[in-house]
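Dear colleague,

Thank you for sharing your sequence with our group. We've completed the structure prediction you requested, and as agreed, I am returning the results in plain text so they can be pasted directly into your records. Please verify that the sequence below matches your submission; if there's any discrepancy, let me know and we will rerun it promptly.
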Amino acid sequence: MEERGNISIHTENIFPIIKKFLYSDHEIFLRELVSNAVDATQKMKRLSSIGEYKGDLGELKVVVKVDKDARTITISDNGIGMTAEEIKKYINQIAFSGAAEFVERYKDAGEQNQIIGQFGLGFYSAFMVADRVEIVTKSYKDETESAHWTCDGSTEFAIAPAHKEDRGTNVILNVASDSEEFLETARIRTILDKYCKFLPIPVEFEGEIINNPNPIWTKQPSELTDEDYKNFYKELYPFSEAPLFWIHLNVDYPFNLTGILYFPKLKNDFEIQRNKIQLYSRQVFITDEVKDVVPEFLMLLHGVIDSPDIPLNVSRSFLQADSSVKKINTYITKKVADKLNEIFKKDRTAFETSWEDINVFVKYGMLSDDKFYEKAKDFVLLQNTEGKYYTLEEYKTQAQANQTDKNGQLVLLYTSDADKQHSFVEAAQNRAYDVLKLDSVIDSHFIGMLEQKLEKTTLKRVDSETIDKLVEKDETKESVLNDTEKEDLKKIYETAINNQNMKVEVAPMSPDDAPVIITLPEFMRRMKDMSKAGGGGMMFMGNMPDTYNVTINANHSINQRILKAKDDNKERIARQAFDLALLSQNMLSGSALTAFVKRSVDLIDKE
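Please find the predicted structure tokens below.
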């Protein structure tokens, strides 16, 4: 006998769920329905394990079928099934969760977190793509009749006896005309691969199992080999290089979290590397936009995070506000820091080999998280131009004796481009100074942070001043020129250069130093670097013209020669010396470069 009635909506819990409004992405319907089928199967498995069901379980699986001619999608399981009364209770009363009731009932039996559904809403996502939905089901309980439920998306339903012999449920979607894309097998396979790839019960589609029910993050690290981790990485990212190393996450208090995070080999385009961490809830894919779960500085990591504390219908606002998510964020930060420290202590050589790929993670973390800084300051590495690595403390000790200035300030010299700044690096090394390589995309910010954190320490780029001014000592160099000669030399250069953005000064230096040295002051250069890197209030610096210091070496023979040259030749030689300084800074181009070449040929010819 057919029964008719109205679906009861619990208005205090409901939000717009029918048709277009349950989820923003219509393909989610398949995730929800397959997840429900997995729930039913997991329940059956649980009841058998605790002795409440004594029959034959059979081969537990979920089957998805598409019938393009009949315009149907069918999701079948051999789980616990439902009676007509249970249909009325669990399906007709929207927002009443059968999974929640089951967990409550069997909470003392353990493993209750294996049940995916929690809100009783997912089933109705079917109406986003179907204009009629049917349920044909038979309960696992003895002497119960099978039932057939039908609804066209309104609040009316029909329920009648059915002819189903086996335990379980078939959900049949009669696909609407505006959703015909979901009748294509390729489309369904893509959705299953995205959302159901690691569901804990086998899912069959077109005669084959499409998922891995036992991904390695569900296992204990002691059960796994390095090869297992590498193979799983290939499963996640088939076209990527092997990872450097990984972290296995496993915590059950004060929140539940499992997962594996991989450190990849970084490419130049960081954006391509981002959004590679997949967020799951009980092995059901939720999203790969995890920046509120994973700290921003670790967004370049790859891998999987699975937490039952995060619901399937997760939103950005939920992630930002949820206390469990914040705890997970903190936990992941700590685990990453501990893992890096462990690798550093266990095998420093391997850590140094990986440094080029992981230094951005570490430096960004130190910049953005004080707790991470406190751990990372012991294993963050500085590399000098000779290729040798130091910890912060090691390097401070190494540089202390020779690079402490007259004010007791330790001066750490660095280059952002060892080739372009080679002459300046060489000048520093000639004074027995050591020079660091700080040339990554984040180093302009990292340098500023080090100066804030390290006492009585400053960092200067080797081309920001003449070598004597980089590390000022209590030494006075004598000039071979008197004051009048120095003023004359300055005027000659100012006329030859004829550029108001080049500030000329004459200073006594070593005769072995270059005749002319062009430098961009450290403050101005650093502000411009910060501007290029998106340094907030420093953006205006990017529009300001560069103002350089031009230092004329009073003790160089060329400058003494200029003073003795004929008047019509003074500026010509001065310009040649200035252009050589420009050339050493890769600042000579266009017509100025052409003029320099012609002048050089002319000077050689006259020799």
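Summary note from our side: The chain has 19 helices and 24 strands.

Kind regards,
the structure core
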